Q: What sequence folds into this?
């Protein structure tokens, strides 16, 4: 979780949800639009899940 928080913090992202279910981890975050399309390698594989937030960022969901 710390690595994810570090990546998000360095890229104007905000972690909204981090859920552990057995060995499956799912997380959701708000990130700038530029990073939602794979602009941050550590967030690659994360998918947009809704439209834009009020501040213009994109909500994404990823797994680990």
A:
């Amino acid at each position: 979780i710390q690595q994810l928080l570090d990546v998000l913090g360095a890229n104007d992202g905000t972690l909204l949800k981090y859920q552990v279910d057995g060995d499956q981890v799912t997380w959701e975050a708000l990130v700038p639009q530029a990073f939602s399309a794979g602009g941050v390698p550590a967030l690659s594989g994360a998918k947009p899940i809704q439209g834009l937030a009020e501040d213009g960022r994109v909500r994404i969901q990823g797994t680990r």
